[in-house]
Structure formats: C-alpha cells, structure tokens
C-alpha cells in the first residue's frame, strides 16, 4: 500500500511540474498530500521526515528570496562568471546573428504546434511561376552536363540567357531592375537548375546568396545600392565574394588578410583609405568576376580614425580592374566546370567609400557576413541537395523499371527497393524542410541555426541519394560519356558538403553549439548578465532568470517522464488520425531533448565545446525534430492527402528513429555513466518507440518512384524537377524507353508465356521477337512494336566508348 502512496506522490508531483503549475500552489498541493500520506499511509516516520526536508529545501528558497540570493544565487553567480568560457568576437557575432524561430520552440520542450501550422503556406506568384516555367525551363534545356564538362564552362548562349533574363538578380528589388522574388521562388529556381546541372546551379546561386547583392541590400549605402544593384541586375557586373584563404578556412578570425588605414592618392586627390593585401581561394565566379567583395582585418596604426588600432573584420567592394588586384586563374573542384579560382591583392589602395556600408560599418564585417550567410545557407545549398534527391528519384525510379535482370525489372528486388526507398523518402523529407525554411525567410526570419541544420542534412542526404542511385545503376553510372546522366553528380557531391562551412564543422560545432546558446530561452540572457558591471542589479536579474531556468528544467524532466509513461497521450495535439500520433511523439522527444540539453550544459559548461561528439548528437536530435516538424507542416498545408501518407510515414519514422538513436548514443556516452543510465529510464521507460522505417514501408515508397508519370504521389515527389522530353537527351531517352516498355507489357507477357510453353524456341542468329513472329505467336506489327521498345531499352542500357584518337588531349585541355 505504501508503494501506491509513493507512486502517486512521484507521479502527481511530476504531473504538476509537467503542467507548469506555479511553484507556491504546487508546493501547497504537495504539502496537503504529505499530511494525508502521513496520517493514512502508515509510512515510517523517518521517511516522512525525509519528504518534509525535501519539501522545505524547495519551499524555503522560494518563500525567502533574500536568503536565497545571499546563500544560493550569489555563490552560483560568482561561479558562473568564473567558469563561463571565453568567447571570441567572431563567436559572439555568430551566436547573435540571425533570429530564433521554430528551433526556439523545439528547445522549449513544449512546441506550439498550432503556431507552426498557422504560418501561411509557401506559394509562388504568377510572375514567379512564369519565370520557372519559361526562362528557367529554357535555360535547363540549353545545357548538357557532358558538354559543360568537355568545355569546362557553360555555353555562351547559356551565359547570355542568364544575363538577359536576370538570373543574377532574383533577390534584387524591382526598383533596382531586379526580379524581387521571394526566398521560396529563389529556392525553386535554384533547385530546378540543380536537377539539370550542378555547374549551372552554382553559377546562378552565388550572386543571389553572398553575392554581394545580399550584403548591399542589408548594409550598403544608398549610393552603393543605386550604383551597383542595377549593374548586377543587368549582368553588367559579375560578382563574387572572397572570404576563405589558405590559412583561414573555418576559422575566419585567423585570416591574415589586412587593410591598413592610411592616406593615398585617389583620382588626383589625397584621401584617407585602406591599403589592402589579401590572398583568397575557392572563390566561385572569381575567374570571371568584375566586382569583388573581399573580407579582411582592418587596422589603424596611425590613429587616423580614432584611438583603436585593431578595428576587426571588414568588407569592401572592389572592381577587379583596380590596380594591384590579381584575378583570373581557375581551380578545378573535382572536375566541375563552374567558375572557381583564387585571387589576391598586393598594396591595393581604395577609399573608405569602398567599404560595404561605408566607414560606419568598418569592423562589423563578421556580423554582416553571419546575418547574410544564414539566409544563403537556408536557400542555395538546401536547394541543391533537394535537387539531387529529386533528380535521382526521377532517373533511378525509371531506370529500375527499364533495366531487367533474370527477366524481371530491378525494382522487383528487395535490395533495390531499399535503395529506392532511401532516395524517394529523402527527396520528400528534404523538400519539406526546404519549403518550410524558405518560407521562414519570407516571413522575415534569418534562421541561423536552422540554416546550419539544412546545410548539413540536405547536402548529406543529397549525397546519400546520389550514392544509392549509383549503386542501382551499376556499370551504367561509372562509364563517363554523353549518355551518363549520373557521373558528374557523383563527382560533384563532395563540393556541396564542403562549401559554406564544412559539414563536419556544421554538425559538431555549429548546430547545437550555436543553437544551445541562441535558442535556449535563458542561457544567452544569463551569459549577458555575467559580463555586466552593475553587479547588484545583475545579481537580481540573474536570480529571477535562475528561478525560471530551474522551473524550466524541472518541468522538462517531469514532462519527459509523464509523456513517456503515457506514450504522449496527455494533452491535445492537432492533425488527423495519421499525424496526431507523430505530434505526440515529437512532444515527448522535444521535452527529452530540452532536458538533456540543459543537463549537458550544466554538467559540462564550456567543456561541451570540446566534447564535439556529444554536441553533435544533441544537434542531431534537434535536426531530426525540425525535419519531422517540416514533414507534418507540409502534410497539414496540403490538407492531409491520402496519396502522400506513405511518404509522411517514411519521413516521420526516419526522423523519429534517428532522433531516438542520437539520444540513445548520447546516454551511452554521457560523462556521468550512472546519470546516463538513470536518464535512460526517464526517457525510455518502455524502451525505444521508433526504430526507423521497416521493409513494408520501404516497399511502398520504392513503388512510388517507379510509377507512371501523372501519379499524384510521384508528381509531388518530382515537383520542380527538370524533365527533358527529347530522345536525344539521355534522361529524355529514359522516359521514352519506359513509355514504350509500358505500352508493350501485354505483348511481353504474351511472348514470355509462349517461351515458357515451348512455342518459341531459341534460334541461332534470331532474337526471341523474330522467332516469335516467324512462329506466328506475334504479328509483324506486334513484333515491330516490341522491337522498338527493346531498341529504346538498349539506348538506355548502353554506355559510351571512345576511340584512341578521341581520348588524346587536345590543345587547351588541362594536362
């Protein structure tokens, strides 16, 4: 009987904390229960003393705030100030950059789903849709991956089309001659280009990302915007931005590039300006750029502008024909043909007006970059990763139907279905996250943490899709030539993993390392108080935050227990019968994540920065919760369509399974092993609930990408993918072969039945079809129809070969 009283006490107290009942009313309820328990439960006296002491340990600090501040908060505040890890200026700018959006809700442990579902659905305007259906479709049709690779450049007509139709001006407002498109439209354009050519997408992406049009729009002076933005919109200037150097990649604060404030001659007059020296590499569009944005550290040794000598990272905009600028050579990133190369400057003197934003923004360059990078990472690279997933869904789904082994299509084999499911499931999940995040940008957000999540997970999943596609295609995928529609995607996959922050860095340091401080409801505010000079007022504010933080932590721990025991059934969630269980699962995991994040930061403090694998696992949990949120939002926005349900189930089981795996691995490697074991009981009292997708679900998703054009689930999966129709195009030939083979399926069955019955026997020098026609099993017309389909199949299956002479290096080739 006593055990029942104790269980009710524990669960009742946890439920009060889960409901976030105000502390004093909650304590009063617990006190009444303890009185009743002492009177009727026959509990030992010593046990009741322990419970009352625990009650007093909580009640006294709450009831006597002065005593709490003196003996608890003040020592803790002093310790917090002492152990707070040092933060560089670049780290501080990165953490403070951007805005907190749905990531903050996930960090809260109690996401407001009604808030997420109330955000408007992402839509294109008529003008944006017309641009995608017209100039974008035309640009895709102009290029061939093989020809681009042979010439190591886009064809001249593609460059002319890009400039003529304003592809470099998607984000530039109309008043400057640009398109003024939404972030969602920008993403749609980039994604469609990526489904045709990574080189084409890269060429268009840079001017619309960190171009420097984005920097000019946010920070440029009116004079700079009026001069440069119309030129960029017309394509008169081709821009690039130079940040990375040989000695400073991820650690931009270590860049040796310098700009010294000095006096010099400019247009016949002596002016105060900057003498710049830099060496950069990996700069996309650098070899053809006419306008160069460059990041450097500014110094004022002669105090021409003030007392400070080290002014910080700054950004300047320099025409590439300026004296001292060296530009024009090329890198070859894994054989990709998009323009990329090094540049340098030696004693380049420019006036202060060349600073982006003018002298006012001297030393504020890292803040400017972080705010603009968060938008670019939300759009460009996620669009490329999603484009790879959609494109591989298209070609691998079709190829697995066209190619046969043992007289059955490849798609009939379970091993192939596993790969097809990973491709198709990833494509829909990635697209959901891409759409949601682009829409957040259109809503005015600058989602720095979410952009890191998308950059990492969508480029990694894009690479995974390409890998699976190569495995399914086998020899077809590894023989280079005009008919290989996968080879260059395989070659280029690591490029998008590497650029704009290597993925190892993004996962291990940025997602949780930045998110824990930026998105947590209290940590950033507590850190700010630790550096305040007015200690007495800071202590009062810290005490208030601390009480809220403790309540937040206790509530999340209680919610983890209550939601785990109840299988998430407590509380109302939105959705239909399909999605409601998933909302409940996310509530449970969000509470567990918030609790584990708090505990990890409390136990490890600044050491968490160096425990990268723990930080990465916490980041993985946050990432998969966000991806799952995006899938549910998309399903809701489409009004719960039945044809999407296999894709939703796959996306949710994938995300929930990986989130639970990350939590499982975190607990197995928790610094305090005893606490890790105790937390496992709290988080997984009945064991893990989600193990990932199963064979039946994989088979359903695999079937979708092998269906005929026009199927609603397939069309949604491939929405925005360029789909050539010409049989001269290898992808168009694939669709043509599939169409013909599907038309002759009854004839194929008729032929196979006749072969099996012995009506058609193998005849030397004749094909089965010819023998069947000779035997009267097939009519002449039926034989011709089957032969056309088989010829189309061979066009798809065949790979390229070259003569010795064709492979000799010609003049101008890289040797």
TrEMBL record:
Domain of life (superkingdom): Bacteria
EC number: 1.3.8.7, 1.3.8.8
Pfam families attached to this UniProt entry: ACDH_C (PF09317), Acyl-CoA_dh_1 (PF00441), Acyl-CoA_dh_M (PF02770), Acyl-CoA_dh_N (PF02771)
Boundaries of every Acyl-CoA oxidase/dehydrogenase middle domain copy: 240-338
Keyword annotations of the record: FAD, Flavoprotein, Membrane, Oxidoreductase, Transmembrane, Transmembrane helix
Acyl-CoA dehydrogenase/oxidase N-terminal domain: residues covered: 137-236
Domain Acyl-CoA dehydrogenase C-terminal bacterial-type: 517-802
Annotated pathway: Lipid metabolism; fatty acid beta-oxidation
Cofactor requirements of the protein: FAD
InterPro entries associated with the record: Acyl-CoA_dehydrogenase, Acyl-CoA_Oxase/DH_mid-dom, Acyl-CoA_Oxase/DH_mid-dom_sf, AcylCo_DH-like_C, AcylCo_DH/oxidase_C, AcylCoA_DH/ox_N, AcylCoA_DH/ox_N_sf, AcylCoA_DH/oxidase_NM_dom_sf
Residue span, Acyl-CoA dehydrogenase/oxidase C-terminal domain: 363-508
Signal peptide start and end residues: none
Record field: catalytic activity: a long-chain 2,3-saturated fatty acyl-CoA + oxidized [electron-transfer flavoprotein] + H(+) = a long-chain (2E)-enoyl-CoA + reduced [electron-transfer flavoprotein]; a medium-chain 2,3-saturated fatty acyl-CoA + oxidized [electron-transfer flavoprotein] + H(+) = a medium-chain (2E)-enoyl-CoA + reduced [electron-transfer flavoprotein]
Family according to the record: Belongs to the acyl-CoA dehydrogenase family.
Protein name per the record: Acyl-coenzyme A dehydrogenase
Organism lineage: Bacteria, Pseudomonadati, Pseudomonadota, Gammaproteobacteria, Pseudomonadales
